[in-house]
Amino acid sequence: MADKPLKVTTIGTFDGVHIGHQKILQRVQKLAESQDYESAVLTLFPHPRMVLFGDESIKLLNTIDERVEILKSFGIKHVIVKEFTKQFANLSADDYVKDVLIDELNSKRVVIGYDHHFGKGRSANITDLKAFSKLYDFEVEEISAQDIEDVTVSSTKIRSALEDGEVNVANAYLGYNFFITGSVIKGNKIGRTIDFPTANIYIEERYKLIPKDGVYVVRSKHNGTVLFGMMNIGTNPTVNGVSKSVEVHFFDFDQDIYGETFKIEFLKRLRDERKFENLEALKLQLKEDMKAANLYIEEGHD
Fold first, then answer.
1. Sign of torsion, CA 95 100 102 104?
2. Per the domain annotation, does 165 fall within a domain?
3. CA atoms of 195 and 173, how far apart (whole Å)
4. How crowded is the C-beta side of 223, counted as CA atoms within 13 Å?
5. Which residue has the higher pLDDT, 228 or 278?
6. What is the domain-level CATH number for residue 109?
7. What is its EC number (predicted)?
8. Containing structural domain, residue 29
9. Do 87 and 196 belong to one domain?
10. Which of 67-71, 149-153, 187-191 has the highest mean pLDDT?
C-alpha cells in the first residue's frame, strides 16, 4: 500500500455533477491540497435501481463517460467508477470500508453527506463510518444538513426541469449547460429540401435523459470552431414521423459529418414541436426560429 498515494475521497452517484455536488468537490480539493493528499471520487454505475430492480425507465442527466469528464474538469485527480452489481450491493459495511475505501483507494480522509448510507441493505450510516474510521485509521468529514441545504438543488429537480423543457432552470442548477453527446447518422434528408439541412444525432445510451420535445437553441464545436444552431426533438409530425429523433441544424455550416461525434449544449428553448400544414409553412416557421435564435446569441447568452 505504500506505493499508493493517500487520498481524500468522496462517494456518490453524482448524476449531473450539479452545483450542490460541486460544493463537495471543492471541499475535497481543498483538503487534498492542504494535506498533500490526492483527491478522489468513487462513483457507482449502473444506477442501483437498474441492477436491483431491473428498472430501465430511469433516466440520468449524464452518461457515465460524461460524468467522469465533468468530475475531472473540477480537478479531481482520481475518478473511480465502481461497477454496481448485486454482489457489490451485498457487501457488508465492514467489507465495503476495508476492501474499497482502504485497500483499494487508500483513503485517509472521507468527505460524506450526513445522510449517506452504505453496506448491505444500506444498513450503515455516518455514525458507523466514524466508528470504522477509528478501526482503520482514517478521518471522516461530515457534510451537514445545513451545508447541503444551503444549495437547494437536486438531480431530481434538474430532471424535472428538463422534462418540462426548462433548460434555463436546469442550467442554473447544474452550473453549466446541459448537453448530450451523440454521433451523426443518416436521416431522411427532408430538411435539405427546405434549406434547413439537419444532422440526426444518435445517442447510444438509452438511459440518457433527453429534454422535452421542442425546438432549442444549441451550441457545439467542430474541429475547434464554435457552432450555433437549432435542435428539434420530437417525431417530425409535419412529415408524419412516428419515431422520436434528435436533429440539429447548424448555422452557416455545411460539411459531411456522418459518423462524427458531437457534444451539444442546450442554451434556450424556443417552442413546442408542432405539426404544420405543409413543408412551406414549416420552412417559414424555421426562419422565424432562426431569427429568434440569432437574436438570443447576439445578446451574448451562453
1. positive
2. yes
3. 36
4. 4
5. 228
6. 3.40.50.620
7. 2.7.1.26, 2.7.7.2
8. 7-153
9. no
10. 67-71
Domain count, the chain: 2
Which of these three, 96, 129, 153, is where a domain ends?
A: 153
What's the pTM? 0.91
Grid cell listed for 291: 431569427
Question: What is the spatial distance between Cα 151 and Cα 21, in angstroms, rounded to a whole number?
Answer: 9
What stretches of 36-136 show up as alpha helix (H) in DSSP? 48-52, 64-73, 86-89, 93-95, 126-136
User: Cell 471522516 identifies what position?
Assistant: 140
| Cα–Cα distance for residue pair 211/24, rounded to 1 Å | 27
State the Cα torsion 227-229-234-237 to the nearest 10°.
-140
Place of cell 427546405: 194
**77 and 125, same structural domain?**
yes
Beta strands (DSSP E) in the chain are 7-11, 38-45, 78-83, 107-113, 139-143, 179-185, 199-202, 214-222, 225-234, 245-250, 261-271
CA dist list (Å): 164 to 7, 208, 236, 272, 287: 40, 16, 19, 11, 25
pLDDT digits (tens, 9 = 90+) for 203-254: 999 999 999 999 999 999 999 999 999 999 998 877 776 688 999 999 999 8
* 208 assigned to some structural domain: yes
